[in-house]
Design a protein that fits this description.
Helix 1 links the parallel strand 1 (about 1-5) and strand 2. This protein folds into 2 domains: about 1-215 and about 385-400, Rossmann fold (3-Layer(aba) Sandwich), CATH 3.40.50; about 230-385, Glycogen Phosphorylase B (Rossmann fold). The chain is an alpha/beta fold. Helix 4 packs across helix 5 and helix 10 (about 310-320) packs across helix 13 (about 370-385). Helices cover about 45% and strands about 10% of the residues. It has a 7-stranded parallel sheet, with helices on both faces. Strands 10-9-8-11-12 form a 5-stranded parallel sheet, sandwiched between helices. It has 14 helices and 12 strands.
Length: about 400
Amino acid sequence: MRILIAAAGSRGDVAPYTGLGAHLRRAGHDVALAATDVHAPLVRAAGLEFRGLPGRPEGEAGGRRALMRTAAAFVTELGQGFADVVTASGAELLLLSTTTAPLGWHLTEATGIPGLGVYLQPAAPTGDFPPVVAGARSLGRPANRAAGHLALHMADRLYIQAVTALRRRLELPALTPAATRRRQERADWPVLHGFSTALVPRPSDWRPGLEVAGTWWPYVDPAERLPPEVEDFLAAGPPPVFVGFGSMARGHGERLSEIAVRALRAAGLRGILQTGSAGLAADGDDVLTVGDVPHALLFPRTAAVVHHAGAGTAAAGLRAGVPAVPVPVTADQPFWAQRLTALGAATAPLPFRSLTAEPLADALDRAVRDPAYTRSARAAAGCTATEDGAGVVLKAVEAQAG
């Protein structure tokens, strides 16, 4: 079967689909992954065909209204680019991310190509927790569900312009994003979620068709090894602490680097700083700066991980069985940080904007030296090891093919 996976966003929004796509390819399927051009090397390294989607336009100066205009313009351009890709792809099945599904539904209607949801976040309302973009504090079951519906309503508003333009191009009758979503829900449109039940058990009040599959791990070449300088640093002393903020914290590199080094030294720990979009960097015998290094290879050899609590990084830390010190920056990160803390696998989240060395040093000391954190992280690692997220998707794909 010829499969097109469509994802939009930062590296963390795309990388999990490289592992999922590689698994489907090994099973004999022809797999392409559509993403923005910056992710082309990542996709091709996994042996997948790359299809380019429009990138996010430059943001406007101003407040919330300006940001919403920019986001709406991006989604509209994304919809048109996605239509071009689907037209040229010859796809027989679309696998749609949280961001691309509200556009993909219209393409499946116009072309007859079936689609499955493959989400990295729990988007459906539930009483178990508030929507992932609303923070980590539970509002109580009725209010959690109400907030979840409000979050969907806000997302529908973001897609109005894009859906109107896309349906006009596809010669489909007018239909609002909200009406389309409700139609998908009534049909129990299947969505598989790529995170572990250790972090988010399937809510009992979810409709049929919504399932938690297990994590989709980013592709790592079986022959890949850590760089020699990293191996030398690891061999030169006790396990270090990893510090990285992924695609977050752009422009905060100098501040975060200074805070991290001061905290590590105050706690008597060595550290590996991953440059990332923030531009972290530091010098010293007890600190190493690295670029893009697979978390799957590095994290199991660390004492703890300090990160922004993105879904992928949070999962990678759990998989390695090492405790975390989460410093969430935005979006769904407070949600994942709270989930790690509730598991006992992480210290309480630290505030990004007001982060200083002293509380970070204290959190590091507790994460590394209190064995309860490691026990909890290893227990969660045991749970993730029993899950086969990519295998669950493969079964769903083959059911479609059958």
